[in-house]
Each structure stands twice: as C-alpha cells, then as structure tokens.
Amino acid sequence: MRIGTRGSPLALAQMYQVRAKLAHVHRVSEEAISVCVIRTTGDAIQDRPLSEAGGKGLFTKELDLALLNDEIDLAVHSAKDIPTLVPDDLAIPGFLEREDVRDCFISSRAQRLEDLPRGARVGTASLRRAAQVKHMRSDFLTPLLRGNVETRLRKVEAGEVDATLLALAGLRRLGLETKATAILSTRDFLPAPGQGAIGLMTRADDQSTQDCIAPILHEATSLAVAAERAFLSVLDGSCRTSIACLAEIANAQLSLRGMVLRPDGSEVFDVQRSGPAAEATAIGGGAGRELLTRLPAGVLAA
Description:
about 300 residues; alpha/beta; four-stranded mixed beta sheet; 12 strands; about 20% strand
C-alpha cells in the first residue's frame, strides 16, 4: 500500500498513526507500507487567508490527483480539511476514532481568553474562530496567523500576537498538549465540522484498499462526521463561511448542534437536532435546511 500525506508535522503524525494501525491489524512491519509526501497548494500559501485563495480544497487537491493518477492508494486528511464535494471517482470509506474535539487557548498574557486586555490580538487563520472570539468580545482583534502548529506557537511566544486558538487534537498528536493555556468548552466554542477526526480517502473502485483499511475505521466517529458534513454541505460551507458543528453519539442516539456566525461575531444563529445514529446524514442535512430558513439574507455570502 502507498499512503499519501501532506508534509506538515501534524499531517505526518496523523499518517504515521494510520500506518501503525494498519501494520498492527495486518501483522506487517510499518516499513512495508510506503509513504508519499505531497506538497499542497494550501501549504504553499502563507501570506493570505485560504478563503481568498480558493478554500479548504487547497489542502486536498494534489492528494486527490495522486489518487486518481494511481500514484498512491490511500490519502490521509484532517477531516475538517476535506471539502463537502469530492470527485466522483474518489471515496471516503470512513474515519479513525476521534480525538478531543475542543479548541484550546494559548497565551502568555492571560490564563483565560476573556482575561486578555482590551484590543488584544488573537491571531488565527480560521474565520470560525475569529467570529467566535469577536462574539465573546467585540474589542478583540483577529489578525491572520498562518503556518503549521509549531510556527503559530512560536509567533505567540515571540509576541507577534497576544494569543491564538488551536485544536487540542493537533497539539496532542504532536505531543504539545502542555502548550495549551486553557481548554475551551464546546458550549462557547463549537468546533469546526470534522474537528479531531482523521479521514481516509481512496479511489471509489479500489475495493482492495477499502477492505484493507476497514478494520481501523471507527463507526461512531464516521457517523458523527457524516452528520456534520451533511450539515456543512447544505449550507455550502467552505473556508469563506463561519460555520461550526458538533455531533455526539450515546446509546445509539445522535445529538447535533450547528451554528453560523456573522464574520464580525455580531450575530449567531444555531440549531439542534437529534435522532437515531443510523440516520446521521439525514439529521445533519435536516439541521442545515432548518437553519437555512432562519438565516437573514446575505449571512452566508458574507
């Protein structure tokens, strides 16, 4: 098997996790599974928001092409980076068991986000996080902060910004969890759809690879992320929109909360739905359609 991945430290950590699980279940050495590191357009663009350059597909496009050209058999992605629409010739068989979905606050200026001084600069590359920060306090500034996890941490330590928000899952996978100043509640900071999950993509007709990865897929995570992606798809979510969503499963029941925010954080529109986990996609899609009927004109276009 040939696994394709981006070259950032976090992408490599996620790929090695996938490779280790495959090697374990199939009783082969990890070195028997080859790795192909592919530089994506999203990695190359560091001087402007991805929303201005084409959206989240910039992190998957080159890996999609490698699959379609039979250069790799399996692509490993952060689930939140996968566009809602994927090429017809590709498939997402499922996801690994999800890590912690929460965001965390990182700063040397304060122990809590709300304790930062007026006009503090909370750097982020996420429109969702920027909108949530401004919803908490309209005086906060949210300058663009691009780069991999380590680069963003260095910029905070150097004082280029007063604070930033990052996914706790990424810090844990990199062994950097101690860098988190505080962990944020999903009640106040609902995560991005798919946050904390690792998605696997194959060619749609490659049954052999799909059978090979089936033992490492996690059903509950796959159902929850399917609901979140259905919600996102209805709203045509991309890097240009401030959308948050989280589905959780307990006792075969799925509960979903979704949210759309104005970019300046001045208004938040949310929705909640629940039902049998087996109906995950329908629940997510239904929540998205319900929210669409309540959104003022132009909110998503903004």
